[in-house]
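QA checklist item 7 of 12: single-chain prediction sanity check.
[x] sequence parsed
[x] length recorded as 161
[x] structure emitted
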Amino acid sequence: MNTHLKKITHTSLLIALVFLCTVVIIIPSPLGGYINLGDAAIYLSSYFLGPMLGFLAAGIGSMLGDFYLGYVNYMIATLLIKGTMGLISGYLFQKEKYILGSISGLMIMVIGYYIFEIILFHNLLSPLANIPYNLIQGIIGVVVGILLIKMFKNAKVKISF
């Protein structure tokens, strides 16, 4: 299989994984968002794909999850926020800084959605209500993501292009 086709195939599969992890188990949060396991899939995708393709897998998979679940007003913000999570964590994972990459992704997500919700709700206070929910989701994503990365790394599973 040629390199270009491998990249498309692996990226597509990981977009689907992020999507499924985003929509299979959802817990609504107070201001219209939801808690899910998509962040763990984002970290796993970024580990395998690196920063640029990690951006695509994270951003597109998460954005499609928002569309599927009816959170259309979050779609563009999700593409950018989750894509940036994939980009930064993928870059740090390449340098084998897994905890820093995951914590950076967590902070990007929490701060990114807070800023977006300030714009969406036109105030600084009401978006504060979602921060604990985003932190819960983010921490779960960090723990599960790091465990999955360690498991695949120990098993010497790699995607090569």
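[x] summary fact logged: The chain has a mean pLDDT of 95.
[ ] second reviewer sign-off
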